[in-house]
Amino acid sequence: MQLAGVMGWPIAHSLSPRLHSFWLEALALRGAYLPLAVEPDKLEAATRGLAALGFRGANVTVPHKEAVMRYCDTIDDQAGRIGAVNTLIISEAGITGRNTDALGFIANLRAGAPEHSHTGSIAVVLGAGGAARAVAVALLDAGCAEIRVCNRSLERAQTLAENFGERVRPIPWASRSDALEGARLLVNTTSLGMTNQPALDIDLHPLPADALVSDIVYNPLMTDLLARAQARGLRVVDGLGMLLHQAAPGFAAWFGVEPVVDDALRAHVLAGLTP
Ligand code: ATR
Question: What are the residues whose beta carbons fall under 8 Å from the beta carbon of 194, sequence distance 6 or more?
Answer without folding.
Answer: 217, 219, 223
